[in-house]
Amino acid sequence: MTKILVTGFEPFLDFKINPTMQIVEALNGKKIDSYDIVGRILSVDFQQSAEQLKQHIEEVKPQIIISLGLAGGRFKVTPERIAINVKDGEPDNNGYTPVDESIYEEGEDAYLTNLPIRSMVNRLQGEGYPAEISNTAGAYLCNNIMYEGLAYAQQHKGVRAGFIHIPASFELAIQHGKIPGWNIGDLIAAVQLCIEETARATNH
Which residues are responsible for catalysis (predicted)? Predict the structure, then answer.
């Protein structure tokens, strides 16, 4: 069986629930086409999460890496087009607050995803899920992990990698009070469709 590594994040900032955890747990162990899905949760810590991702990649040896992140406030599922070599933004869960830092001093300025993001969006919209391509993953942990995954894919021929931002779940939206939400079952189904499109594109 070929492997797909799907990662999510623990709760962070004022988001006391992170639906990416629930999605990853729901998909872990599932089979899609000829792929086994391996789900893993990352810490919201710039240093630790990058190391954790590398460890998971080494252990799983995936052909496809799809990382998920919460974009509290977005109301569509948004596959990301680009990761930039910048760390910046709010404090992580251990209080680290980088300003205009490089992820890698000698790294590429940016990497474009090689996931079939247009096919993902077309499939999601066709199945009734609001979706669009996003041209910024920000400069926080999500961008950081997307950059790490794409740096790995760049060095390993045939590996696909990328990132999908998801809206809040209803549970988080109710708790937070000021952001839109989706049913968690719909979020899981939407991510599964994205995985199906990636598996199909990789196999053909």
Answer: 80
